[in-house]
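FYI - complex with zinc ion, inputs then prediction.
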Amino acid sequence: MADAPPSPTTTPEEVLRAAKQMLADGLVEGTSGNISGRLPDGLVCLSPSSVAYDTMTLDDLVIVDLDGSVVSGERSPTTEKDLHLGALRRYPELGAVIHTHAVYATMFALAHEPIPAVIEEVVVYVGGDVPCCEYKGTGTADLGDEVAAHLADRGAALLANHGLVTCAGTPAKALHIAALVERTAKIVWGARAMGATIHPLPEKVNRDMAGVYRYIRENP
Ligand SMILES: [Zn+2]
């Protein structure tokens, strides 16, 4: 059997850039949401707790090991660190996790309803419908486990009554998925508001494109 490819890695600069971009894209506001990136030495760069994105600097980021112990940084890591570490521990092919409170995606999270993969690029970049996890308290290890289980074959999952988590090889790719999922949630919501019948993609297209997702994920 061939060795698994090395895990994708990133830099604190890329984590900071994506953190500021998710604010600019309207996916978070204030200090809500958080982001992580796997570093070349196997440690993880996390956004801090309670620091506004617009004034955040590299010095505000926190470096932790995969168990969540702080290795360097003056700040406390995000209180939702288990969301990130649960996925990064479990899936070596992932290099970044992003958690947002985007409005339309969160509407589906309130309804405990998956966002249907009715647009081709969602199947390619997410792997299929965006599932909704069972409700677990914010910041708990239980929530981290619940989310990680749903990310086995998906690039995104909804947190019941809370928001969205996305994952990919790099912060920029995880951010792209977060924006794509939010846009899709808005489109589906709008189509339903029109009273439209939403038609699923043909089953073969779903199967083939989910295979493309799998390939992209395993070859980051
Ligand atoms: Zn949150």
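The chain has one domain: 12-218. The longest helix spans residues 171-193.
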